[in-house]
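DM from R.C. (forwarded with permission)

"hey, sorry to bug you on a friday — could you get me a structure for this? deadline for the figure draft is monday and I only need the backbone to look sensible"
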Amino acid sequence: MLTTHYLEEADSMAERVVVIDHGQIIADDTADALKAEQAGDRITVTVAPGDVATTREVVASIGAELAEAVSGGGVDISFRVDSGPVALPGVLRALQDKGVMVEAATLKQPTLDDVFLNLTGRSLREGAEA
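My reply, with the result:
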């Protein structure tokens, strides 16, 4: 058994992770399962402003939690998917098939910090400061 506030350490060393908040167990699973369930992989594609509507249509059939932000001359469209490394090539192909020119694409896989934030609504650092 390892007790730690260092979530990177827990991720790399623990077979199972138990998250305790205010004395209550709020999660108990493997690190990978918690990250997939609680945070999920996020894909962000940057497209031209004229391609936003088409990109929204494609993303609606693939992911959830759509977020948009203006980025330079393009628009970043970010969304959650299951198994990002598997989903990313399909997303890029679907956009290409619809005539969307993707300027950039990134994949962010979650950390246990993301899981803790999702479960408790605060970062571990905020909890320590309180």
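R.C.: lifesaver. The CA atoms of residues 55 and 95 lie 7 Å apart.
me: no worries. DSSP finds six helices and six strands in the chain.
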